[in-house]
Amino acid sequence: MPKALVDDCKAVAYAWFKRGMPRSKPPIARGLTTFSVASMMPFMRWLDKLGIFRFSDVRPIHISNYVHHCKNELKLRPLPLYGRLRVIDFLWVFAVDTMFPLKNYPWGNSTLWRICGIGKIKGMDATNKNVGRTDIIPPDELSKIFNHSESIVLAMKSEVAVNGIGYHPSNDQVSAICRDAVLFMVSITSGMRNDEAIGIEVGAWRRELKDGVLFCWVSTIEHKTGKGRVEYLVPELTLDALELLGKYSVTIRKELEQEIRYLSRIANPDNPAEHLLRLEKARTDSKKLFLERHAPCGRIENQYVQALSGSASNAAFDSLAKAAGSDWRLRTHQCRRTYARTFVESRMGRTSLIYLKWQFKHSSMSMTQLYASNPQQDLTLFDEIFQQMTEFKIDLIESWLDDQPLAGGAGEKIVEMRAIPIKDRSSLLAQTAPHANIRATGHGWCIATERGCGGAGLYEATRCPGCKNSVIDEFFAATWQDIYGQQQELIKIVDAGPAVKQRAERDLQIAFDVITSLGLSPINDDKVDENGD
Fold this sequence. Notes:
Layout: H1 3-19, H2 29-49, H3 60-73, H4 78-93, H5 112-116, H6 139-163, H7 172-190, H8 194-197, E1 205-210, E2 213-222, E3 228-234, H9 236-248, H10 250-265, H11 272-285, E4 291-294, E5 304-307, H12 310-323, H13 333-347, H14 354-360, H15 367-373, H16 379-401, H17 409-417, H18 425-432, E6 439-440, E7 445-446, H19 456-459, E8 470-471, H20 477-492, H21 498-517
Antiparallel strand pairs: 1-2, 2-3, 4-5, 6-7, 7-8
């Protein structure tokens, strides 16, 4: 690359690393590396092809063409596009640090955020704005992969139990499969990022008994926001899996320790700098739980043991999914978002509350209480959960505004509102959803913001359809079919007394009205005569 371009890019990167952007902290080393590879180098290559050797020669037309190239030819989404273009923004911000600065503000009357399609929207306000591309693992695929991983861990447990404490696995392939299964279980049951999961050290976990309840914690280093050591709450089976892997990885860790002793004995290495770097990395990796054998450039003779890398983790997850019989393209970064979504779906009643009770020990424990119980927890995980909560509400409210039939007092009002034209539904939902109060009752949604029924409708389902705060959508149709069937059974009990029969007849009619409002007909709608036959 032209020396002037390289030198100015280095100067900009150094200025950012030391001072940070205005009103933001300097990046960590990993951020600087990502910036160099994803932003600086592609832009320099592109300018070099055009025959431009200094940034002072870059004109607005060049930047406009580069933006068009990234958007339309590379088809980058907003956040990756921002990552690709930010070198241009930095060149302007740190212009005084360069030898050949840009002569014109690169974004005209706009800003980089708006050019990328993000605007000023950040965090939860960015919901539904197509700024991210992390997929949520579908429940069916997640079930396949998790069950497969758990079966591998159970097989490990049996193998270690049979062979005793001194067991050393000799099959490298089997050891790698076990490592990958444990890594997936840790990722999906804790909400850790991948660099935090692969950074777990041997024995960096603990059990804590509080008021008769066992809490399990895993400790690791959080790099992205620079918080340092944090702890994640995990179910006990995850701790069991980590302890098993600790026993299972004895062989490969001993191999690394032997290399450390060998490197330490070399007094005069041929390449002192490279030798010291390798020795230091080996010492650091010797504490890590998730290890791999790495062969530089595919040369087996130069193979050595190191901590599992991010790219190797993705390859491992891909193999794990295929072995589980899933066609899903599993990636490490999907686990954190899937974890947050599963939390929200459980809390909102879309999936079993058993997940929440299993993970957080008590289904009524708020996230604030949970965080306060351990200040070392990663607060950004709760931000992720809150964002998923907002996305869930947006999807839910948007489904109500579509053509699906609704029951309940509030549901009927929403159906009436559909006739009112809305200029920008997406913006309205993004602004409204974070503040909407929506709770699942098991047979509908409650949007009461005040006292409501005091929770009575939670236990007496037939109180909800006539309530002004109730919305019953097609998701709960099967529940009301079951309620209808239960009332039919009650009516048939001849010795239950007239009060039970009257109550059952009333609730039968309420359930029937809900089912018909949803555009369905009752299942097994048996005719009942006056005698209950």
